[in-house]
């Protein structure tokens, strides 16, 4: 059975490490904040100038002045801090962020990403995605395996305007986990969602992909 958004981001949270500085992209990736393992210290950074985001607030905890880059209200962990967006991007461009978890509209078989605009659709701006894929040490994408029309999103070459080239290290979808093989420049499927088969992943992927000899099952 394919994972829901909560299951995808729960699996993504397993990639967090104690002491990491992490940027969560707009949309699905923000849910990772709800799954930080107990006892682990992770500093979640937002481009609008916040370091130390916590889980989403309850109704009683909502502070309309405390928001992330997607304008969602958030909480802060003990020790959180505020600063200008210029300083925030200095952190990103200076290589001080360990991990970025982003969404995507398309991923190519070589690890290119398109996630900031669809031609003809109004967008508010490209945001910080281009800086993140260029300046962060490791980049993970969380997304559905296909779009709402069932069209594959992991494809031979991106057709939408690119955000970055050969920059994605891992993809976590509702069907599987894929890790980039740096030597062959192709993604290798290492885990499948419960009851999802290799054949289903292949049928919903047009990119050339690899499969691990032993496929693990993602913990639901």
Mean of residue pLDDT? 93
Note the total helix count.
Answer: 4
When the domains are counted, the total is: 1
Q: Quickly give the structural class.
A: alpha/beta
CATH fold-level topology = Glutaconate Coenzyme A-transferase
Radius of gyration equals 17 Å
Q: Which homologous superfamily in CATH is the superfamily?
A: Glutaconate Coenzyme A-transferase
Could you give the order of the helices and strands?
Answer: HEEEEHEEEHEEEEEHE
- Which percent bin holds the helix content? 10-25%
Indicate the proportion of strand residues. Answer: 25-35%
* Major β-sheet profile: 10 strands, mixed
Oligomeric form: single chain
For this structure, what is the CATH class?
A: Alpha Beta
Number of DSSP-assigned strands: 13
Account of the protein in words:
The protein contains four helices and 13 strands. It is α/β, with parallel strands linked by helices and 220 residues long. The protein has one domain (5-217): Glutaconate Coenzyme A-transferase, CATH 3.40.1080.10. The strands form two sheets. It has a ten-stranded mixed β-sheet with strand order 4-3-2-1-5-8-10-11-12-13. The chain has a three-stranded mixed β-sheet with strand order 7-6-9, with no helix packed on it. A hairpin with a 3-residue loop joins strand 10 (170-172) and strand 11 (176-181). The longest helix has 9 residues, at 5-13.
